[in-house]
Design goal:
The chain is of the alpha/beta class. It has a single domain, classed as DsrEFH-like (Hypothetical Protein Ychn, Chain: A). It has a 5-stranded parallel β-sheet with strand order 4-3-2-1-5, with helices on both faces. The chain is globular and about 70 Å long.
Length: 145
């Protein structure tokens, strides 16, 4: 009987430790929302910040939320101040897990069809609400490049 009880305790302890290690590993992931609303120069800075961020912490969970002029770099054919396309940088970051979210309110007010966005971008109802939700409900840290 003691042997069975000891085995049960050992298995229970192992299960608790495995769960604890998994929870700790999930907690080690830093979640960051990059907020962009100022146009092409901010987007250029922001994408550089994100590349540097991922170089230092490849496991970081990064979401870029855009509204206002901040959506411009996510439009098909957009280029930076040196006429270099954003498309390659966006695709590269998306392949590393970065998410790009665009404010539908901005699309509507600026009369931009969602089909004009790069394929890596997804539309959310309101950019500012998305930023607040990520911070308040999902534990994201806020950064504004």
């Amino acid at each position: 009987m003691f042997k069975i009880l000891a085995t049960f305790k050992a298995l229970l302890f192992a299960a608790v430790m495995a769960t604890s290690v998994q929870a700790q590993a999930a907690d080690d992931v830093i979640k960051v929302v990059y907020h962009m609303s100022e146009g092409i120069p901010q987007a250029s800075r922001g994408l550089n910040n994100i590349r540097n961020h991922l170089a230092a912490d490849p496991k970081a969970k990064i979401v870029v939320v855009t509204h206002g002029l901040g959506i411009d770099f996510l439009l098909q054919g957009a280029t930076n101040q040196m006429e270099q396309p954003f498309a390659g940088a966006i695709a590269d970051l998306a392949n590393k897990g970065v998410e790009f979210r665009v404010c539908n309110n901005t699309l509507v007010s600026r009369k931009i069809d969602a089909s004009k966005l790069v394929m890596e971008a997804s539309v959310v109802p309101a950019g500012v609400h998305e930023v607040a939700k990520l911070q308040a409900r999902e534990g994201f840290v806020y950064l504004r490049p």
